[in-house]
Structure formats: C-alpha cells, structure tokens
Amino acid sequence: MQNTAEKLEIEDRLLSPLNPQQSEAVTTLDVPLLVLSGAGTGKTKVLTTKISYIVEKGAAFPSQILAVTFGNRAAQEMKERLRQLSPDSDGVWLGTFHSICARILRLHSESIGVAENFTIMDADDQSKVIQQILRELNVDKRAANAVASKISRWKDKGIASDDDRIDGRSLEGKIYKIYQERITAYGSVDFGDLLLLVLRIFKKHPEILQKYRNKFRHILVDEYQDANMAQYLWLRMLSPLGDGLCCVGDDDQSIYSWRGAEVGNILRFETDFPNSRIIRLEKNYRSVGNILTAASALIANNENRFGKTIWTDGESGEKIILQQAYNGFDEAKMVAERIEGLRSRGIRHGQMAVLVRAGFQTREFEERFMAYGLPYRIVGGLKFYDRREIKDVIAYMRLICQPNDGLAFERIINIPKRGVGAAAIADFHARAREKNISLYAAAREISAANLLRPSVKAALEEFVRLMESLRQRKNLRPADMAKIILEETGYLRMLRQEQTLESQTRLENLNELLMALEDFEELATFIEHVSLVTDGPRNYQDDVVTLMTLHGAKGSEYEAVFLVGWEEGIFPHNLALQDGNLEEERRLAYVGLTRAKRYAFITYAANRRVHNQWQANMPSRFLSELPAEQVIHITSGRNFF
Ligand code: ATP
Ligand code: MG
C-alpha cells in the first residue's frame, strides 16, 4: 500500500505541470468524462498523464486500462510518452481501434467460427477479391473500388453482410455477401471486420463481453471526433454506463467523415451518459500567437461547430508567410530552400513537415529534396509494405501460417515462375468453389486426381513440398524465416538474374525488410504488424523532414510546417468543391495550421500540372480567410527566414 506521503509525491509529480482544467480532467475518475477543446490544448497530454495517474495511484492495474487512439504513429507516440511518465505501465492495452480489436479477435475467434490464425487483408487484397467476384458475375471490374468502398462504409456503420439492412437482391448487397463468404473461406478478415467481428463476439457471447467489461475499469479514447459508428457501438458495449470512460476530442478537427467518422458521436456524449462531465481546455501550449489567431479566424468561417475559446500567453512570434510560386517545380524549390534556411537557423530537419492535401503532390517535393540531398521520409500511404517484393515475401509468410489464405496462394503460386499459369489457377478456383475448400487444397486435389499436365503437376507437387517444409520451420525467428524463404523459393535467384536497376532496388528493399524483421520474435506477430501499420519500417534516420498528407498529420506537432498547394481544386479538393463539403476541408486547413509551433509557411502556384495537364488555379479561398494582420504575403521570390 502506498502511504500518504508517497501519494502526495505522485500527485505532485504528475499534476504540477498541468493547468487547473487539465488537472481536473486527469483526476476525475468515476464519471463519464469528455474533454472537448481546440488544437494543442493538451488533450493527448491529459490522456497520457491520466493513465499514469491511475497506475501510480493504484486506482487500477495497468491491464485494467484500455487506451485507444487513431493511427499507429499516435499510438506509438503515446506509448513513448507513457513509458517516460510511468515505467511500470507496460500492461496497459494501448493501441489503435484496429490493433486492439485484432487482439481481442485472436483470443476469441473460434467462438464465432473465425479461424484462429486468420490473416488481415489490406485494401489491395480486398479489391482483388472483389474483382474476382465481379468477373464471375460478368460485371465490369472497374467497379471494384467503388464496391469496396461501399462495403467498407457499411462496415464502418456496423452493418454486417447478413444484416437485414443489406438487400441481397441489389448488386452491391449480393457482392457484399459473396465477398464475406469468400474471405471467410480464405481464413481472412478485412479492416472493417476487425471491429464488426468483435461486436459479433460481444453480442453472441455475453459472458465474453462481461469479462471485458469487468476487466477494463478505465477506457480512454483520443481523437474521439473521428470515431465511426462501429467504433462508437464497440465503446458503448464495453462501457454502457460510461463510468471510467474518458474521451477527448475536438469537433473542429473531424476530418474523416469520408471514412465514416460521425462527429455527432462527440456532440451526443451528454445525452448518451446523463451524469457525464464536460471539461474544456482553453489554453494552447503549442503555437505562437500569430499562428493560433490565424487558425482560429479560419475555422470561425465554419457554421457547424461548437465554438470554443482558445488562447495563449506565449509570444505572438513570427507571422505566417504566404508565398506564390510560378509553378509546382518552383514551389518545391522554394520549400526546399526555406527548409535549408531554417536549418541554418538551428531548426532540425526532424522538426519540419511538408503537408499536402493529396498523396500525388509529394512527388515533386521528393524529387527536389533528392536533388538537394535533403533527407526526408514519407509517412503514411503504405509505401514500404506496398512494394511488390515485400508483398510477395509476406504472402509466402501468410501462406505458411494460414494454408487457406487464397489470396496469398494466388499471389505467389507462380512467383518465381513455375509454369502454373492462369488456366490452372482458374481450375483451382472452380474446384475450390464447387467443393467449398481452399485454393491450396483444391490445387492439391486436382493434382492428385491427375487432372493437370504432367509439367504443371510436377511443379505443383514441388511447390507443396516446399510449403510443407517451410511450415515445419515456422517457429524460427521471422528474419531467419525470410532469408530461408528468399533462398529456397528461388526468389533471390530470380532477382539476381534479372540484373536491372529495378531488380537492384527490389533487392535493397528486401534487405530493408530483413532489418525491420529483426524487431520481431514470431512470424504471426510480424504479419499482424504489417497488416496494421501504415508507416514504413522505423530504421530510417530520425532527423529528416516529414512529407505527409494533412490527414496523416493529425495529433502531431512540428517547429515548422509547410502547407503547400493552397489552390482551388487542390485545396479545397476538387471533390469537395463538387459536393460542397467545404467545412471538412476547412477543418483540414485548421488541422494543418495548428500543427505548427513557430513557423507556418503557405504556398500556392500560379500554374500547375495535374495529370499531365497544365492548369491555372485560383488561390485557395482559405487564403482570404486568414487575417491580414498575421500574414506576410510575398509575391516575389525573396526569403524572409
Ligand atoms: P491536438 O488537438 O492537436 O491533438 P492536443 O490537445 O492533444 O492537440 P497535446 O499534443 O497534448 O495537445 O499538447 C500540445 C503541446 O502542448 C505538447 O507539446 C504538450 O507537451 C504541450 N502542453 C500541453 N499541456 C501543457 C502544460 N500544462 N504545460 C506545458 N506544456 C503543455
Ligand atoms: Mg492530441
């Protein structure tokens, strides 16, 4: 037991850095609590401190605390911060909604008939399965992406394929049903399933739900404004009365409605939990006065919002610099030069970020940065694990762990080339469907029944032998396993023989993968990690400029932020102009600007080439919403930093 003096000491250490409202939020433990406040007011700080406070005070064991956040980077960051505050907090269940659900699903998958060794599909896999189905139904497969996103939206809303709300006679409803059957047969789940299936477990097995209700005495949620309906339902099931629930968020930063986020959830908190408490934090600790004033003025143009006060007692600092570029090339050059200018003034590269509205915009910056030898990384967008050779190796790993994984099988059955062509694969598919077995099993049956050409049969038998032999070694460390896969499948030989620049890059990437694998002890853990991360391996140098989308920047902060491409049609995005959802775009602008601590630099180009066509864009409407007082507008190329 802790004595009073120790308790006071803990309280002092944790609470003294906080302002009174933050402190109240940290110490309020028993009622449903919503912390609603603007950017940089310390919401995330409150959450991490609160976890420490609960642990150090002995109010609950670490394993009785559940902390969910959006995005892997945010989760990683929170883990770090927590480790510094409380070294004993290891047992806390901290992660993204998806990773926590994957963990729960792994433990109870059998209770709803899902294979225990299920693999998690990414968007690419998802769209492949849908293409297969469209082909079978004789529908144009170009519809695949649209259908995939429709299915994801249903899942975001908590609507499963067997839900009454899905009309099996409509084409989309029909595809949804077939899709779900098929991925279940593959022993796979997609991202949306992670939540849906856990909801199903909770509904079907009240005793399991009860176990988690008893377990998680405290549930803390960051970025609550971006929770979708399925996530909301999940939280409500875990904490029906909201006691021990603490959500923090900012309605002005809700930027995921296109992915099913329901900002209404945050606005409904008081009705959901009648005895709840709302705490507002108003003091911003992140940005200098000029940046904060400009961001507040910008977001005030939105009509649909709570409205908040936000202030800082820090210096007003540098003004925002707004600069026009002649074209995209010029813009990238301008940014690169500014970055070097800041660097010479002692700001580290790692403290600078370039934020774009859409992924395609990064390329021009990448090229410029490479030319200048300026170190950078791209965050988000699944770059590394999206590369073909990486996906191939992972497909082998998946097939080793889960023989039913039809996508993995199809991906690598003929890589390196074994002479198992499309016709044979089509036969496997037909057999698998007819007998309701996996592709792998179907291939073995067809081969055993002597229905294949002798050369194909021999190749297949060789492949089966190889897989069985690999499977026997699946308990080796993942890095060793990967080396064995690369050698024994002939993958390395294939790349070495190619001797092209491309094959060279692929070999380098595989080396990078081996490095990333060193961090893992088990194959299954690594596979799960890959399915859940969107960032590349962490082995990259630290002190580099970050290039990412505005969406990816949520929750983070940098000394200097470059907001580029502020032109009508780029930002606000063309699609938003078409469907009139400008308020969400403005929230994105607010998120972008409030990432900056000291320097904000906004650019727009007079001419821009988009999809190989030159266009002259109007400057973004958001520029005119920035107060003149806080902005220096440069139309010549002079440098101010
Ligand atoms: P966002 O809305 O962007 O997610 P947030 O409200 O979560 O922001 P934090 O990231 O927690 O804000 O805090 C912003 C910055 O202010 C951090 O650098 C944090 O360390 C600092 N900060 C927060 N509270 C205090 C405080 N009481 N004293 C000093 N610094 C603080
Ligand atoms: Mg935060």
Keywords:
641 residues; alpha/beta; Rossmann fold; Arc Repressor Mutant, subunit A; 4 domains; 50% helix; binds adenosine-5'-triphosphate; binds magnesium ion
Report on the architecture of this protein.
With 641 residues, the protein is α/β, with parallel strands linked by helices. The chain folds into four domains: 185 residues, Rossmann fold (3-Layer(aba) Sandwich), CATH 3.40.50.300; 68 residues, Orthogonal Bundle (Arc Repressor Mutant, subunit A), CATH 1.10.10; 182 residues, Rossmann fold (3-Layer(aba) Sandwich); 148 residues, PCRA, domain 4, CATH 1.10.486.10. It has 29 helices and 17 strands. The strands form four sheets. A seven-stranded parallel sheet has the order 11-12-10-13-14-9-17. Strand 15 and strand 16 form a beta hairpin. The radius of gyration is 26 Å and the shape is globular. The termini are far apart. 46% of the residues are buried. About 1% of the residues have low confidence. The protein binds adenosine-5'-triphosphate (ATP) and magnesium ion.
Summarize the structure.
This protein has about 650 residues and is α/β, with parallel strands linked by helices. Helices cover about 50% and strands about 10% of the residues.
Write the layout of secondary structure elements.
Elements: H1 4-15, H2 20-27, E1 33-36, H3 43-57, E2 65-69, H4 72-85, E3 93-96, H5 97-108, E4 119-120, H6 123-136, H7 144-156, H8 171-185, E5 188-189, H9 191-204, H10 206-215, E6 218-221, H11 229-238, E7 245-249, H12 264-267, H13 269-272, E8 277-279, H14 289-299, E9 320-325, H15 328-344, E10 352-356, H16 362-372, E11 376-378, H17 383-386, H18 388-401, H19 406-412, H20 422-435, H21 439-448, H22 454-471, H23 478-488, H24 491-498, H25 501-517, H26 523-532, E12 545-549, E13 558-563, H27 574-579, H28 582-593, E14 596-605, E15 608-610, E16 613-615, H29 621-624, E17 631-634
Parallel strand pairs: 1-7, 1-8, 2-3, 2-6, 4-5, 6-7, 9-14, 9-17, 10-12, 10-13, 11-12, 13-14
Antiparallel strand pairs: 15-16
The structure holds adenosine-5'-triphosphate and magnesium ion.
Adenosine-5'-triphosphate (ATP) is lined by residues 17-19, 22, 39-45, 250, 253, 285-286, 555, 557, 594.
